[in-house]
Amino acid sequence: MVVRVQGTAAKEALRNLAGAIQANPKLATGTTSVRVRWSGGTQAIGQVRSFEPIVIDEPPAFGGTDRGPNPAELLLVALGACQELTLLILAEQLGLRIDDIEVDVHGDLDLRGFLGIDPNIRPGFQHISITVHIASPEPEERLRELLARAERLCPVSDVLRNPVPIETTLALQRTDGVLS
């Protein structure tokens, strides 16, 4: 297995990136931005860089039309994808052979929190579980070490495990003709 990034093995690409960052630490920081715009009903359109727009919607039980995954599902997809990619890149760095990998992510919700029925229940996931399916000839102990390392280094997992300050600003555009 060789993970390739623009035709270069990820191991080499990451080594080059680490070297560049060591030489110039300012290269290590940056901002990732996305835009989400309401498109009517319970639908939103997510825009990430120049990729095709992502339709986000709710299932009919929430008044949606089920045209796309809901935000909570997208969070689980992001977590599973980040775990998988982190595992594959680390495996290559460590010289471990991975023949196949699949990640199942399950999140338990209690809607009483989201709906404001019970203020003692958080509105988000109560618990998230991840099952990593790996096909590999490597010893189980080495794969367990790989998994533990990926758990520590996966950026999405880190965001979910450790509180990140969130700052929300209102940018009001008046539509009633009244100046504020």
Structure description:
The chain is an alpha+beta fold and 180 residues long. It folds into 3 domains: 1-30, no CATH class; 31-68; 71-163, K homology (KH) domain (GMP Synthetase, Chain A, domain 3). The protein contains 5 helices and 7 strands. A 3-stranded antiparallel sheet has the order 3-4-5, with no helix packed on it. It has a two-stranded antiparallel sheet with strand order 1-2. It has a two-stranded antiparallel ribbon with strand order 6-7. It is globular, with a radius of gyration of 20 Å.
* Count of separate structural domains: 3
Query: Structural class, from helix and strand content?
Result: alpha+beta
Per CATH, the superfamily of the largest domain is: K homology (KH) domain
**Number of H- or I-type helical stretches:** 5
Strand order of the largest sheet: 3-4-5
CATH class of the largest domain: Alpha Beta
**Average predicted confidence as pLDDT:** 92
Poorly predicted spans: none
In angstroms, what is the radius of gyration? 20 Å
Per the principal axes of the C-alpha atoms, what is the gross shape? globular
How much β-strand is present in the residues? 15-25%
Main sheet characteristics? 3 strands, antiparallel
Q: Give the N-to-C terminal Cα separation.
A: 60 Å
Number of strands: 7
Provide the CATH topology of the largest domain: GMP Synthetase, Chain A, domain 3
- Give the % helix: 25-40%
Q: How would you spell out the order of helices and strands?
A: EEHEEEHEHEHH
Write the CATH architecture name of the largest domain. Answer: 2-Layer Sandwich
